[in-house]
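Hey forum,

I'm writing up a methods section and want to include a predicted complex as supplementary material. The small molecule is pyridoxal-5'-phosphate. I've pasted the protein sequence and the SMILES. Can someone with a working setup run it? I'll credit the forum in the acknowledgements.
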Amino acid sequence: MTSDRAVARINLDAITRNCDRLRSELREGVELCAVVKADGYGHGMEESAEAALAGGATWFAVAGIREARELADFVEGTKPRVPLLIMGPLQRDDLEEVVACGFDLVVWSESHLLDIAWLAADVGRGGRVHVKLDTGMGRFGTRDADLATRLAITAAADPNLERVGLMTHFATADQRGDDFFAEQLRRFTGWTAPIKRAHPEVLVHAANSAAVLRDPAAHFDMVRCGIAIYGMDPFGEDPLARGLEPALELSSYVAAVKHCAAGESTGYGRRFIAAEETHIGLLPIGYGDGWRRGLSGNAEVLIAGRRRPLVGTVSMDSVAVDLGSDPTALALLGQPAVLIGGRGAERITAEELARRLDTINYEITCGLTARVARVHHSGGVARLAAD
Ligand SMILES: *Cc1c(COP(=O)(O)O)cnc(C)c1O
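Reply by user p_vandermeer:
Happy to help. Structure tokens for the complex are below, copy them as they are.
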């Protein structure tokens, strides 16, 4: 099907089902915004957006202007046109394009809001702004609730602005047993409730994937989900236990098998020296593909349905696995090697790799580089990603 060194197969039906699964948590009328930034967390931005749409998503979100540009044509083709929210900061020079393209953007200062309103009048297209209150994340947004209220009321009254949202972002939604999530929720509810009463048309949103699964009181009018739509668990636990289906499978293949006598080594720095005779399988995937060097001697892969340990140092272009001393190891030449995914009863998740690397599942799939071929499939039909 493809002769690539390393392939990420992405099951678009899984993304669609994960969106359905998330929507089943929501009250009637609450919208699902599919967060497709960072190339859809490594899954392909446009393909993920399309799959999320099929699963009932009605909004998309990205982090910056470049990502919005990449998705613009796709969004233009949707009927009704799906709104696209740029969640991150924008430079003044980009605002005209953002308004002219009809993207939604986030504001937290008076001057920024005035610029948008002025540009919207100038280009003759209604501006779409989301006022962000920093309720405790300590990143973008204003901490000043009075300023945020003034911005919201000014925006709601401005005929050049056709949509106004009120938003925040949680710092600890994924941390069990913390109190800060409830505090942020209390601050946000206290800020939004009077504005929403006076202006029922404003769109209130706060929840990421973890918050959606954690507390229905955080759902408001819309939720912004990334990690869970790709079938990864926002709490770093087993996604299947929460009814989420990992969409991405990462594989390579056994490109060489070599006999290794006791005392012989494989890889840079001779970090693996065979204690006894064995066979080493070489897979053409390495840190240049996003298979991180920190996994040296610290991961397993599935070959012929069995877990095999990685040995030696992860190189830029290859890794070694210990296939054991049995001569049948030679027959594994050419066999697929699954690095993320399941075969039979065995399953390697992004969550397992994240634990080994002391990071989060987000970083595992976002870190897969452009060198890894993306193959999108649904209903068993595979197609190679354009480019
Ligand atoms: C990335 C992001 C999200 C999505 O978070 P997940 O944990 O992946 O669901 C939501 N809101 C904002 C502001 C974000 O930056």
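Some notes you might quote in the supplement: The chain has a mean pLDDT of 96. The first strand starts at residue 7 and ends at 11.
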